[in-house]
Amino acid sequence: MPHGNHDVLIIGGGVAGLVLALEIADQRAVTLLRPASDDLGSSRWAQGGIAAVLSPSDNLEAHVQDTLVAGDGLCDEAAVRFTVEQGPEAIEWLLNLGVPFTRDTSPGADYPYHLTREGGHGARRIIHAADATGRAVMATLKAHVVAHPRIQVRDDLTAVGLLQDSAGRCRGARCLNSAGRRLDLSAHDTVLATGGASGLYRYTTSPMPASGEGMLMAAELGATLMNLEFQQFHPTCLHDPEGAPFLISEAVRGEGGKLLNIHGERFMPGIDSRAELAPRDVVARAIDSEMQRTASDHVFLDIRHLGEAAIREHFPTIHRHCAERGIDIVNAPIPVVPAAHYSCGGVATDRYGASDIEHLYAIGEVACTGLHGANRMASNSLLECLVYARSCAVALRDASRAPHTDAVNRSTVIEATPPPVQLAEWRERMRVLMSARVAIVRHDTELLKAAEALAELQQEVSPVIRQHGQPGIELSSLWHALRLARLTVASAQRRRESRGLHYNPDCPHHADHHPRPSRVRLAELG
């Protein structure tokens, strides 16, 4: 297929992108940009599972209410209800594809597959594939995508920007290959499935987290970004300063794991009646506070009381990975620390993934549907990927496909970019700033310092951007991330209250009973 005149262009090959490709390909030709790095993104590392009402003892309204409570008053209730109502059918679709979810063989089980419980949920409603759900779902979806004759997978290109026609509509993507050659892919409809922005922070739960590149690419076309200040920190990432990030699933606490400080004392029951099963924002702040109180750089998650058989059955991946790091979780507690995990904000979309730029859609973590509000409830993320990829497919199947001709296709070779050591130094400065001043607890003075320092860093990088006709992949990514970091700080400064994941002791209370989502555009940076 030539690099121009594509029908549906999907940028990103995690769960959301793969689901959409499969759902639309029978009606429309699909080009899927899926760099190799997508295999190390958030979808693959999702351990816990997918939240949906599957057991006869559960009900849709309970899932809705649990989600609204976790979102701390900022969820779009219509989006929550839509997502929850579509959940069971989406899971059935995955089962029909052959995803190997863990079965429940216990006597009297009221559902064929094992359901676990996680923080914020009032019932067992998390369907999973042992403790490696993301890996199992991704493997199944990829096999079907590769086999589909109307899906062209491009693993040789990385999108670094979007194309726009004279009427302001999105018309495809500006891409680079590994040799630095620019290829513009003209498309009728473009869908971002590029992931979140946890890579803005120094410590994350993913080895190769996205840094909000897709969000900023949409913003460059004029799209509205929403709720950027609500960055979720997973309470329990394995504490191993010398090793790669590794998430310790929320399901560990769902199955009875207890949080202990470095003195072996349990602390969550004194903070919240739900103890370790409180929503993630509550647990992450509690851990952060306990670490400061005890002058420690981690706490412990203890599941020794479950016994070796149960640990090996329910958490084989975690057990094996910790053992490789020298930690025997059968006989010793797991050292854990909060780490940047999930972006509740992103490109503002409707329930069909449509942004406010014509022909530009966003699904998965790059989007902000209103489902999560001020704090995402555990395992609603993969649910959102499934539901909104499938609803986006409905919109794309029904969309008008009038021909377009004014998007430009071209192929150029980029100029040399700064040496890798300089790019790494700039990115590290950004991540250190965000982790120190815009993390679990924010203060007015720290946010102001972050805003000033990020603006200075942008001024330092800006001449290099202007120097090159087309920056390389790493420099483009940094440029997107840096401006998104500034928009995130601006959003945090504007919210004069503490709500969900945004906690500022200088304004510790909810502002009113009718909170509004924050909205920001790139033009506001000046």
TrEMBL record:
Q: What class of enzyme is it?
A: oxidoreductase
Under which pathway is this protein filed? Cofactor biosynthesis; NAD(+) biosynthesis; iminoaspartate from L-aspartate (oxidase route): step 1/1
Which GO molecular function annotation, any one, does this entry have?
A: L-aspartate oxidase activity
Where does the record place the FAD-dependent oxidoreductase 2 FAD-binding domain? 7-382
What's the chief localization of this chain?
cytoplasm
- What is a single cellular component term in the Gene Ontology annotation? cytoplasm
- What is the protein's known function? Catalyzes the oxidation of L-aspartate to iminoaspartate.
The similarity comment for this entry is:
Belongs to the FAD-dependent oxidoreductase 2 family. NadB subfamily.
Question: Any idea what this protein is called?
Answer: L-aspartate oxidase
Specify the taxonomic lineage. Answer: Bacteria, Pseudomonadati, Pseudomonadota, Gammaproteobacteria, Oceanospirillales
